[in-house]
Specification:
This protein has about 350 residues and is of the alpha/beta class. The protein is built from 12 helices and 8 strands. It has helices at about 20-25, 45-50, 65-75, 95-105, 125-140, 155-165, 175-185, 205-225, 240-260, 270-280, 280-290, 295-335; strands at about 5-10, 35-40, 55-60, 80-85, 90, 110-115, 155, 190-200. An 8-stranded mixed β-sheet has the order 3-2-1-4-7-6-8-5, with helices on both faces. Helix 5 crosses helix 11, helix 8 (about 205-225) crosses helix 12 and helix 11 packs across helix 12. It is globular. The protein starts with a strand and ends in a 12-residue tail after the last helix.
């Protein structure tokens, strides 16, 4: 017996992508699914675009954030299984069949995650880098992931409602990480199926790529410090990325020390650092090569080790400052919080 699946898509000012997303959803007929798009009070043309498709449109009265939009769709769904994706994600032909295979192979207490395709919808260097990066790290520990991401999350409706849905007054991102951790604490199983993939629309430039790295690191720091798991091997916030960041910082400090002291022998510390970083991230570099070619792998590896960590450290500094401010406020109130107001993911 087929499971009736509700596909839930939050949308906020997504006129550039929501049409492509819905085209991919309805490209393959399926009588045992419904599609709910929750518009988070957009002020662009996206609601008009959504109305062109045979989906159910729920429009929120005020901008409340992606968590509130997902909850609104989930609590008004008819399906016994929920599939969350984002408005800038495209389904593949086999997406629903892979979901149903997972549902039949696992108990209702298993929450299943997917990932991005290694090759994104848009072909630019920075978009390809990001898609390979996320695919690699989200599937690296697929049998025991730290979280499952909402860009491809499958969960039984009963489990979702029993756990209380997504926290709505939270950080602007990482609500899926908090949700996953709450599921694990409650005894549910998390699993990532590397075959369950959606094609993401990034449209990244150098600036957008670096800004995304800084922003995500910012909130990872705030969340991880609050939950005392800063050094956990957690998906895209992997230990390999963290080591790469520390190697970059150590290299910068070593070069500065050598320049200030005039002692060139200090630079002999650099080859072991770089060699260790190369060894630790070798499988990621191979994933870059597999996605396109050796030239791309070289360029992506240089970007990952030379420039990307600079944005990571900008995010670290911002996160430490925010956490310090929130800690002082929570001391005054007697309890901590991570509320940050509604903001798109």
């Amino acid at each position: 017996m087929k499971q009736f699946i509700t596909i839930i898509i939050p949308n906020y000012n997504g006129e550039q992508t929501i049409g492509k997303c819905l085209e991919s959803v309805f490209a393959f007929p399926d009588d045992d699914r419904e599609v709910i798009v929750v518009d988070d009070c957009s002020d662009d043309r996206s609601p008009a675009i959504i109305k062109k498709y045979p989906c159910r449109l729920i429009q929120l009265d005020k901008h409340a954030g992606a968590s509130a939009a997902r909850n609104a769709g989930a609590y008004r769904s008819s399906g016994n299984v929920l599939f969350f994706i984002d408005a800038d994600c495209l389904l593949k032909e086999d997406t629903l069949s892979i979901i149903r295979k997972n549902i039949s192979n696992h108990s209702p207490g298993t929450v299943i995650g997917g990932t991005y395709t290694p090759v994104p919808h848009d072909p630019g260097f920075f978009s390809l880098f990001q898609s390979v990066f996320i695919n690699y790290f989200e599937t690296k520990n697929f049998t025991d992931p730290d979280y499952v991401a909402t860009h491809a999350m499958v969960i039984h409706t009963e489990v979702f409602r029993k756990i209380g849905g997504f926290v709505e007054l939270f950080l602007p991102i990482l609500e899926d990480v908090e949700f996953s951790h709450r599921l694990r604490t409650a005894g549910y199983t998390l699993l990532v199926d590397p075959e369950l993939q959606v094609r993401h629309i990034f449209n990244y430039t150098l600036w957008k790529s670096l800004r995304n790295a800084a922003r995500k690191t910012h909130y990872w720091i705030v969340y991880s410090l609050a939950h005392k798991d800063l050094f956990a091997d957690s998906g895209t916030a992997s230990r390999a990325l963290k080591v790469s960041g520390f190697v970059w910082l150590a290299s910068v400090l070593t070069a500065m020390l050598s320049g200030l002291s005039g002692r060139r022998e200090v630079l002999m510390l650099l080859p072991p650092l770089w060699g260790g970083n190369l060894y630790l991230n070798w499988d990621l570099f191979r994933a870059f090569q597999k996605a396109r070619d050796m030239l791309f792998a070289f360029r992506a590896g240089m970007y990952y080790t030379v420039l990307y960590p600079a944005a990571i450290w900008v995010g670290v500094c911002r996160g430490l400052m925010q956490y310090h401010v929130q800690s002082r406020l929570s001391c005054g109130k007697g309890r901590g919080h991570l509320s940050s107001g509604p903001e798109g993911k």
